[in-house]
Design goal:
With 130 residues, the chain is mainly alpha-helical. It has one domain (2-28, 54-129). It contains 5 helices and 2 strands, in the order H-E-E-H-H-H-H. The protein has a two-stranded antiparallel ribbon. Strand 1 and strand 2 form a beta hairpin. Helix 1 runs antiparallel to helix 3 and helix 3 packs parallel to helix 5. The protein is elongated.
Length: 130
């Protein structure tokens, strides 16, 4: 029973971490920075958030990991083999997403991915121990 709660708590932590990453990435005003020089020699520095630069469509990509974590959280509440497979699948997909996008936003999604994988491992071990 303790391992079941541990897996659910880790999945919930992964959800919180991925939501925090999505909000931070979407709203951080220094995501894009630029400098321009006018003809009279004045230097102008600009900055914009991810949403300001790319539009609201970027929210879909930022919220995909949150959806994966929510699915894994719901699966952690079940004892079925399919639910454990779903937890592994979501953890691996989130790890793949983080790896593919590591040069831009992926590093922010590594902690939730690792938390999901540890939650899946804990849930799998719980099933074997029972």
């Amino acid at each position: 029973m303790i391992r079941g709660r541990f897996a659910t708590q880790l999945a919930a932590a992964a959800c919180a971490l991925s939501l925090a990453a999505a909000l931070f990435l979407a709203l951080w005003p220094e995501s894009y920075q630029g400098t321009s020089v006018t003809t009279d020699g004045r230097v102008t520095e600009t900055s914009a958030s991810l949403i300001e630069e790319n539009g609201a469509e970027v929210l879909l990509w930022l919220l995909l990991p949150v959806a994966a974590c929510l699915w894994a959280l719901l699966a952690s509440l079940s004892e079925s083999t399919g639910a454990k497979a779903a937890m592994w699948l979501m953890g691996l997909l989130l790890l793949l997403f983080a790896w593919v996008s590591i040069l831009s936003i992926g590093a922010f999604y590594l902690p939730p991915a690792l938390a999901l994988l540890v939650a899946a491992l804990s849930a799998t071990r719980r099933r074997r121990a029972a």
